Amino acid sequence: MDSSEFLKINRGTGTSALIDLELEEKTIPVVVKEVQKHHLKDQVVHIDFQRLNMNEEVRLTIPIVLLNRDNIRLQPSVLVQLLDEIEIECLPAHIPPAAQVDVQYMDFSTPITVKDLDIAKNENITILRDLDDIVCTLTPPSAPSDEEEEEETGIPEATEASENRME
Question: Of 111, 109, 114, 144, whose CA–CA distance to 126 is shortest?
């Protein structure tokens, strides 16, 4: 298999996507289980595929994608993602490329949980995690302390004693 061609496909589909592997004039449905890369170069050394039976459920981990993270309505704010991926079980025909949720209208008091992900509404997918687990939260930015401001500017805060000396 051509390494650069595989990397291009893998970047576009991720490790959870169903791939039709052509091998000895047969098409075999597979998912990527592991990719080993050269430790210094961005070259694929070895790929492990898992052959799928289209009639048997498969357990796999898919990434969680936060949509509109650059367009969050409440600003200034800090988005903290606690879960990057989630384990699911489903038939190969129902494997989603990712679990998604729109975070544009989040507020500071209501975190996004697993039950808010788009896959939670899909009856063909079983989520293997508590639906009340937190995926992400939105918090207001913390005000910098006097010490942090001094580190940023390099100028210590004025004190009463130094103010009196200036008079």
Answer: 114
